[in-house]
Amino acid sequence: MLLARYGRALRYERLPFEWRVRLDALAPGVFNQEVLGQSKWWIDLFGAAYRIRSEQFQTAHLLHVVMFLREYAALRGEDGRAIRDSPLMQELVAELARRTGDPNPLIRHSE
Fold first, then answer.
1. CA angle 91, 11, 42 (to 5 degrees)
2. How far is CA 24 from CA 46, 100, 103, in A?
3. Would you list the domain boundaries of the chain?
């Protein structure tokens, strides 16, 4: 698939991850599990992209995303293991630990 951008054709496969997800966006409010396979971006339910290690991605938002993914994984039962073990979840938890200075940030925040 070719896209016109600034007068040039650009191959879909060469687009940055966050652009591809936006182009492939599901209906608003639907969680796109494709984000689980990478560890740099969080794409919210409305297609907005946030770089995980950016200050734009506030710590409170980061914590809410981790809690959302934990609840989503719990609802999926055995299938939820893939979510808990995903590169995205590992990076989100590592970034939360870095920001809070707590090596186990989920223990304190899960109560």
1. 20
2. 12, 34, 36
3. 2-109
